[in-house]
Amino acid sequence: REFMVARLLGDVYRAEADKYTGGALAIFRLAPQDYHRFHSPVDGTIGPMTYIDGEYYTVNPQAIRTALDVYGENVRKIVPIDSPQFGRVMAVCIGAIMVGSIKTAVNDGDFVKRGDEFGYFAFGGSTIVILFEKGAVKWDEDLIINGRASLETLVRVGMGIGTGRQA
């Protein structure tokens, strides 16, 4: 099945999917040897989180190129972050094979600063998908070039990946 933001966001946030049409999307795939804690991409307030039960398909690049919509079918937790600068940013934490647990270290209504840890995967590798509304962010040039070539870009905690367009 073809990737669809509405399916990714699930029933609770499906009505918000149109806000991200033409927006910016980043996929952070973690390999088993990677750091498995995830950090807030923006300053903001955690909105109502929702857990979506699903499959545990692998998230390796070969699987993503199959007919499966791995991101929309795997188990996931939607973490909305309401940011004064970026609007509502959706962090979608996606479980995968050998990753049965998505743990969040924040509660609805908590304020987080960019870089604050807000959760982790209990074991193995998995993926975070970040959605920004149209016009909210401008990606760094290396990400744009590599993305167009279907190449992954190594990103470490604390590295910048783009700049905000809204003030």
TrEMBL record:
GO molecular function terms noted in the UniProt entry: phosphatidylserine decarboxylase activity
Keyword Iron-sulfur included in the entry's annotation: no
Keyword Lyase applies: yes
A biological-process GO annotation: phospholipid biosynthetic process
Keywords carried by this UniProt record: Decarboxylase, Lyase
Protein name: Phosphatidylserine decarboxylase
Organism annotation: Pleurotus eryngii
